[in-house]
Amino acid sequence: MTAVDERAPALELRDLEIAYRVRGRDREVVRGISFTVGKQQSYGLVGESGCGKSTVALAAVRYLPRNGRVTAGSLQVAGRDVLALGGEQLRGYHRDVVSMVYQNPGSALNPTIRVGKQVTEVFALRGVRGADARERALAILREVRIADPEQVLRRYPHQLSGGMQQRVVIAMALATDPSLLILDEPTTGLDATVEAEVIDLIAELQDRHHTAVLFISHNLALIRKTCQNVGVLYAGELVEEGPTEEILQNPRHPYTVGLLRCLPRGGVRKDSRRLDTIRGFLPAIGEHLPGCVFVHRCGLAQPVCATEKPVDTPVGASHRSRCHFHERAQQLPHDTEGAAVAPVAVDRATTPLLRVDDLTKTFRQEGHEIKALAGVSAVLWAGETLGLVGESGSGKTTFARTLLGIVEPTSGTVEVDGRPLPPTLGSRSSDDVAALQIVFQNPDSALNRRHTVRRMLKRTLAKLARVSGGAAEARAGELVEAVRLPERALSARPTGLSGGQKQRVAIARAFAGEPRLVVCDEPTSALDVSVQAAILNLLVDLQGSHRTSYVFISHDLGVVRYLSDRIAVLYLGRLMELGPAATVFEPPHHPYTEALLSAVPTIDGEQRTRIELEGEIPSAADPPSGCVFHTRCPRKLGEICESEEPPLAEVEPEHLLRCHIPLEELRVMQGAPHEQPVAP
Amino acid sequence: MSGVRDDVPQLPVLVDAPPAGQPSLTHLDSPGRVRRETLRQIVRSKTFLLGAVVTLFWLVCAIFGYWIAPYHPIDESFAPSYESPSWSHPMGLDRVGRDVLSRVIVGARSVIVVAPAAMALGVTLGSILGLVMGYFGRWVDNVIGRILDAVLAIPLIVLAILILTALSAGQEGINVSSWQLIVVIGIAFTPPVARTVRSAVLAERDLDYVQAAKLRGERAPYVMFAEILPNVTGPIIVEATVRLGYAVFTVATLAFLSYGPQPPSPDWGLQIAEQYADISLAWWATIFPALAIASLVVAINLITDTVQQVLDE
What is the predicted ipTM? Predict the structure, then answer.
């Protein structure tokens, strides 16, 4: 390998432009980006989907898709001109200089080869073989805090959990001691508690190895935890760049300001205020933009913004913004999409809308009994939202599916308006079917891509509201309007709609039959934050006007808190805590709730010290004795936790807790001035 | 990368930007446009064009054969028999002094009628079974699946011969009508089509839109045919074109084995059967009908390749 400048920065982009060739035309995706990641520095690249984040990363490792190419600019990694590398040089570059960790660890590892062989292969490429390679592999796995590396080396990837797989991938990336480590949304598929561990690990490894890191994420809070500097990407342009804290406290571009405002943070709730949104859409790929890229969506835009490209202006120490009016950025008008909310008056004197009593679901798998739900009881009144919180495998989805009748409960009852519902969908009357509806997580798969919106809504109206013909057409129009889509959306098919628009159609469909209860299964987790805010506002509005109740499932505690009146915390199919949202999210609460809250990285205020949960969520086929949480509980009392399952006791009015520790003691333990839990 | 429409006016700037909550529909492709684009891509491909031209040629021969052919296909009045190709008989004469060119042209008919019909029957039956197996799963899938496996285990030609022989039991000699051929080949094609469709349905069955349909009380037939079927048309179209090529080959093979049109029909397979014994004496009487079969099969495969390629993208 040729001599390279040892002092060169880890990554240096100069006016980089990348285009994708689509239908015979080059469409510009990255529109002239310049930034530098110094040696040993960490740099975060943040932006919504479609802004070009991953394209930049792929260009840096020379893995652009076949129709993509760099059209202008330069890209240097540790002093090498990456764009000029060819053949053997490129192989050497991949082997020695750069490493990349992708979003999905499951597909980054070869499912047919044992982990040991895959890890030692990395060393073999660099000439270390046999026992030496094995020693090095064990060492690197220990470094990513894998407790039992010998065991892990013998396993196949599918025998490891997602968090463990991602650790292995990170270990392999670090094994080559690269000059630049690129992490592309490395924790997106992971649970909040696992995500927190992986993020801590990345921050720690970076401290120890002094590897330069390019961290790509849509989540500013994660970047805050891992990166010194951050660049905000919008429509293929770097609109703002600077030290992370500085950008969070003192953003100088309207897009950054808008992005930060979209997040439900500081414990806001649906009855206190609406969420800010960013109106409009990301410009089309390759759209010609003579002025500022953000002009269509900016509340501060002036005529000059549409015609003249703002220059990259220094606005502070190493803080730059690409805005004509950067000094006014923080005066961006609030965009809350409609009037303030009128909170739904909940009348607790009436019959509850939903009463779930001792719901249990046991799956049988290869002779094992898996208790997905173990005696869950809850009550919900009309117009209320019940938030369901817990790691994957905690039974949230099974609970929702049992309500809907998709899954037949093993025992227990579901009552709506005081009437018990038959256990399965097939045995329910069409009124019962109409009463409970769902909004799915992924709007892409929730809508039939071959049907028009009109067809979906009219068919649903015919089945659930028994209206057809002209009346159905009129109702479909009203529904589309209620979810704030233009009327011509009726003729569109899902392929012609954006993610947020698809989710609006899914919501319209769920409301077609005037449901009493809508299950929202992570309805915003597949969407960008600005779209998420608009969808949450819409759900609040619809709840206000229809007095619909929601069962809201989300891993995003900020979102759950915004929307929910009551929160249920599930662990291994058991209710650990149930109570009003404010009570559950404020101490004293269950040690598990405490751990969940502490795992969420924050954007404002001090970072909380994270309460580490040891190990992974135990198998539901073989739950721990006594309190199911005792194996991971940081506040375990002792023998009693292992032998005796604590009852779900009402420790305060309306606040139920399943823990041996008396409430007063929890209050003292957790009592230190506790700041507001906040979501990313 | 999702494509971008360039002929749509972009969002107007500033003042008349759509108010929040009134999002305009995005710049994404309309499905009609995508379909047109797909068609254009298919039509532009050279392999497709070659395949289409050859297929079309045989189609025209099948319909207008008697008008196009220079002589009547069963006219034995030419002499001497086994005359080699000449200006008046470009493909020569066969054993009984019939014009081979005329017989090849007119002979296209039986294959061109039977093969697509058999394919259509096989694809229809196979799609229905595949939908049922994939959608219901469990024992339904198992029972139908094992039966289809049993059918698949018997070689196609042997199966067809068994059924056709059974059908003409009690009659003198073998007498196979086009209807019987269509039904037999259609049934023989059902298992592979059913398998393909089943696996496509398995990928769709667990998507949320199917769940959503159940959650508004839809019954199984509606979910299968109105919700899932439109989403598995891609594999079905590919399967159909593949089967068409096989069908041509199967029809010709069965005719060769005398399970098909009877003499003096100019059917290609039958012609080969009648003439091949004398191939060293008069190659033209065997080679030209054989080339006709090959050209049609290859042409259909060229079309298949393009369709598959474009639908895979």
Answer: 0.79
